[in-house]
Structures are given as structure tokens and as C-alpha cells.
Amino acid sequence: MHIEHIAIWCQDLERMRAFYEQYFGATSNSKYTNVQKNFESYFLSFQKGARLELMQMPNIPPHQNNVYSQFLGLIHMAIWVGDETQVNLLTEQLRSDGYEIVGEPRRTGDGYYESVVLDPEQNRIEITA
């Protein structure tokens, strides 16, 4: 068994797709549209591992969680970028492009080297090696 995909409800579907394509090398399929449900989505594929589904539909309420605190439920997605140098370079690129870094690059107790950035819609992304 394996995780096939993870989904995120989005306010700005195109901005989110562009973010994951630009910074994490994701490849998008063509946009799926269900006119009857007023639903749109993209599936993003990475070099390896699970896909990411970005979804948009009117009337989906914003989450109530504080992005700076931990809470029950899904809290982050980790994207492996290869090595410490890549973690550092991507972290600095995202910072210079105006994205908020909420966890500076560091070695974790369980052996990862990672930083944490908020994507355009405040989802936590661990950049890891």
C-alpha cells in the first residue's frame, strides 16, 4: 500500500498550482472542471511519491486553525529536495520571493534536515533532505 494523493482546498487554484510547479518541480495535469458542482481541480505529480490534488469550489469555508500553532489533524506536508544544500537554497529563494519561513533550516532529532515554509494559502510545507 502507499499514499496515492493528498488534497488541499484552495482559494486561488492557479496561484497554488504555479507555486508547486515553480518551487517543487511539480507537473500538473489539465484542469478538471465539473460545471454541475462548480468544482475545479488539478493533480500535481512529483518526481517520486504521492500526487497532490488542488481543489476549488465556492462556499468552502476557511480553516479555523492558527498556522503558527500545532493542532489535531493534518498539519504539514514534507517535500524531499535531495540534500542540505538544496534545502538551504530553496528556503532562501522562497524567503526572497516573500514567502514566510516558519522554521529555519535545522537538523531534527529524527535525522532530517529541514525548514518549514507557508505556501500561498498558509499550509505548512517541510522542505526536507
Helix count, DSSP H or I runs of 4 or more residues: 2
Count of β-strands: 9
- Structural class comes to alpha+beta
CATH architecture of the largest domain: Roll
User: According to CATH, what is the class of the largest domain?
Assistant: Alpha Beta
User: Uncertain runs with pLDDT below 50, 5 residues or more?
Assistant: none
What fraction strand? 35-45%
Topology diagram in text:
Layout (H helix, E strand, L loop, with lengths): L4 E5 L3 H12 L2 E2 L3 E3 L4 E7 L5 E6 L19 E5 L3 H13 L4 E7 L5 E6 L5 E5 L1
Parallel strand pairs: 1-5, 6-9
Antiparallel strand pairs: 2-4, 3-4, 4-5, 7-8, 8-9
Give your account of this protein's structure.
- The protein has helices at 13-24, 84-96, and strands at residues 5-9, 27-28, 32-34, 39-45, 51-56, 76-80, 101-107, 113-118, 124-128.
- Strands 1, 2, 3, 4 and 5 form a 5-stranded mixed β-sheet that branches. Strands 6-9-8-7 form a 4-stranded mixed β-sheet, with helices on one face.
- The longest helix has 13 residues, at 84-96.
- Strand 3 and strand 4 form a beta hairpin.
- The chain contains 2 helices and 9 strands; from the N terminus they run E-H-E-E-E-E-E-H-E-E-E.
- Helix content is 19%, strand content 36%.
- It is globular.
- The model has no long low-confidence stretch (mean pLDDT 95).
- It starts with a strand and ends with a strand.
- It has 2 domains: 1-58, 2,3-Dihydroxybiphenyl 1,2-Dioxygenase, domain 1; 75-129, 2,3-Dihydroxybiphenyl 1,2-Dioxygenase, domain 1 (Roll).
- With 129 residues, the chain is an alpha+beta fold.
